[in-house]
């Protein structure tokens, strides 16, 4: 689930802290373990054994240069596969597409999420996700894939557009806004409409989102993460919010069933989902699945649409190219936007993708090794990664490898365009913003669609300027986001269509 992403940074920072405080060994030892000559076992990856000194040094790099630089320093020094060991707990980093296949594709019996996501059980309930066995979880993942597959997405375009138009109609002729806050609001309205359905959007919006906020805030408190079942005030608030959401969704499901009403939203798809043995999802399962989807989609959508805006508004050439694309599409189809029009916005698509390359919602993914495996590095070394290790796929490295992404520090949406396609250079696992393989985000197409609906509307209808300086990344947030306000000034284009056609 998405929380891997979210928890990754605090998790790694916590590791560094703990190591700094407790480990007693004197100096950092970097030991590339050579192939053992007297048995046939494979060598293990080079290892950074953290002592106080090295932990302090890592921490120093982390604080002064940021999380990315800290990892990149190790990557440069040790190569694409290296282990950082803290207090006997080893995390092996697999950086770059050459060493990533098993991480993303390994069977659940070989590579698993481990217990990293146990804390989601009291959030989503014990009937879904990490509360259930792997077979059931796999089927529930299929429910998501079915509910969000392209054929099912067409029906969301009109309601999304409606929300977007209504929202921006409230803006004045000109003004200044905090883009991050505006997009967060708008995306909640869209989620309410397309994921949760009319009932919530029209009658229970505030109630649902305040309960959802209570649920997530209190679940992610350190005390709840460490002692999820202790009777503390936070866990009680969490459980009350969860109970409130359960009764709301149960009520909606019952009312739809009793009146034979069928909607087109994602909630309906989850209600209609069936396990292989023919059993329908229960009310508790539907509630858990829909809360989890809201959790997975909310923050990711807000940050990705905000970063896209901040990047576009800081790169005149890209902004003009994106506008030019909109003009071409308006010329061809008029003001109408439907599913196919959205698919034609390929440059805008690349702009979003490039924003996510530079600002992935998850800086690293973590997994647990359940069965030894061998990895062959680009340099030709073979290492064995033993069962029990935690493995990490560091997006902050993967997305910035210079032999794959030319000038990785430059925002350049054209890199994904025809002829270059840098995201394919290293095969399937070159670009990981939506994870990949077995646990790939089922909401990818939906997410692009939603951000395109918003940004095509903004480009067509407003002249926009980034007023504040380009936002820094707040790494201390659960899922990194633009720090502070993202102030944007807008001026309504008076006659969007005729002006665009000039
Ligand atoms: C730009 C926006 C988004 C990004 C970057 C993103 C990224 C991701 C990633 C990386 C994962 C996998 C995490 C892991 O490896 O465990 C994931 C999982 C998931 N995402 Fe997204 N996501 C986005 C938007 C959405 C949206 C809008 C939805 C729903 C409409 C969604 C639904 C899900 C669900 C349900 C899962 C968990 C799937 C499962 O394991 O069963 N995501 N997302
Ligand atoms: C897995 O690796 C560990 C450590 O290298 C080793 O002791 C163990 O024998 C290996 N297990 C198998 C099944 O190969």
TrEMBL record:
Catalytic activity: a 14alpha-methyl steroid + 3 reduced [NADPH--hemoprotein reductase] + 3 O2 = a Delta(14) steroid + formate + 3 oxidized [NADPH--hemoprotein reductase] + 4 H2O + 4 H(+)
Reported cofactor(s): heme
InterPro entries found in the cross-reference section: CYP450_sterol_14alpha_dmase, Cyt_P450, Cyt_P450_CS, Cyt_P450_E_grp-IV, Cyt_P450_sf
Compartments where located: Membrane
UniProt GO MF annotations: heme binding; iron ion binding; methyltransferase activity; sterol 14-demethylase activity
Membrane topology summary: Single-pass membrane protein
Primary location recorded for the protein, binned into one broad class: membrane
Transferase among keywords: yes
Enzyme Commission designation: 1.14.14.154
Sorted UniProt keywords: Heme, Iron, Lipid biosynthesis, Lipid metabolism, Membrane, Metal-binding, Methyltransferase, Monooxygenase, Oxidoreductase, Steroid biosynthesis, Steroid metabolism, Sterol biosynthesis, Sterol metabolism, Transferase
GO cellular component, one term: membrane
UniProt similarity note: Belongs to the cytochrome P450 family.
Function: Catalyzes the 14-alpha demethylation of obtusifoliol to 4 alpha-methyl-5 alpha-ergosta-8,14,24(28)-trien-3 beta-ol.
Protein name: Obtusifoliol 14-alpha demethylase
Organism: Miscanthus lutarioriparius
Taxonomic lineage from the root: Eukaryota, Viridiplantae, Streptophyta, Embryophyta, Tracheophyta
């Amino acid at each position: 689930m998405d929380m891997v992403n979210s928890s990754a940074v605090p998790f790694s920072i916590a590791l560094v802290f703990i190591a700094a405080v407790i480990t007693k060994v004197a100096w950092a030892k970097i030991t590339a373990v050579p192939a053992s000559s007297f048995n046939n076992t494979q060598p293990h990856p080079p290892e950074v054994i953290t002592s106080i000194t090295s932990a302090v040094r890592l921490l120093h790099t982390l604080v002064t240069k940021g999380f990315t630089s800290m990892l990149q320093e190790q990557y440069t020094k040790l190569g694409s596969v290296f282990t950082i060991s803290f207090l006997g707990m080893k995390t092996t980093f697999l950086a770059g597409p050459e060493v990533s296949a098993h991480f993303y594709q390994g069977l659940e019996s070989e590579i698993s999420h481990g217990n990293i996501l146990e804390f989601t059980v009291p959030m989503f309930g014990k009937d879904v996700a990490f509360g259930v066995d792997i077979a059931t979880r796999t089927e529930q993942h299929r429910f998501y894939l079915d509910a969000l597959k392209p054929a099912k997405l067409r029906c969301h375009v009109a309601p999304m557009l409606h929300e977007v138009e209504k929202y921006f109609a409230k803006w004045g002729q000109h003004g200044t806004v905090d883009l991050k806050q505006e997009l967060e609001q708008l995306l909640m309205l869209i989620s309410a409409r397309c994921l949760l359905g009319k009932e919530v959007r029209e009658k229970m919006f505030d109630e649902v989102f305040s309960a959802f906020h209570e649920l997530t805030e209190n679940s992610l408190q350190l005390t709840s993460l460490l002692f999820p079942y202790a009777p503390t005030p936070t866990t009680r608030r969490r459980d009350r919010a969860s109970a409130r959401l359960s009764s709301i969704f149960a009520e909606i499901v019952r009312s739809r069933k009793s009146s034979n009403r069928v909607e087109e939203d994602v909630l309906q798809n989850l209600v209609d989902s069936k396990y292989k043995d023919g059993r329908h999802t229960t009310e508790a399962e539907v509630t858990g699945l829909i809360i989890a989807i809201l959790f997975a989609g909310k923050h990711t959508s807000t940050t990705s649409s905000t970063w896209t805006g901040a990047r576009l508004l800081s790169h005149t050439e890209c902004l003009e190219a994106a506008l030019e694309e909109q003009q071409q599409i308006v010329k061809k189809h008029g003001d109408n936007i439907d599913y196919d029009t959205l698919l034609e916005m390929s440059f805008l698509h690349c702009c979003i993708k490039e924003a996510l390359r530079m600002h992935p919602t998850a800086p690293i993914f973590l997994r647990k090794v359940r069965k030894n495996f061998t990895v062959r590095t680009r340099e030709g070394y073979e290492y064995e990664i033993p069962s029990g290790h935690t493995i990490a796929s560091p997006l902050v490295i993967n997305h910035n490898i210079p032999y794959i992404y030319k000038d990785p520090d430059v925002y350049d949406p054209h890199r994904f365009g025809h002829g270059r396609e840098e995201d394919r250079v290293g095969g399937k696992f070159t670009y990981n913003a939506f994870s990949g393989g077995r646990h790939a985000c089922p909401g990818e197409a939906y997410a692009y669609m939603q951000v395109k609906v918003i940004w095509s509307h903004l480009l067509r209808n407003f002249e926009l300027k980034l007023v504040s300086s380009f936002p820094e990344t707040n790494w201390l947030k659960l899922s990194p986001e633009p720090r502070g306000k993202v102030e944007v000034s807008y001026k309504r284009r008076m006659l969007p269509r005729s002006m665009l056609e000039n």
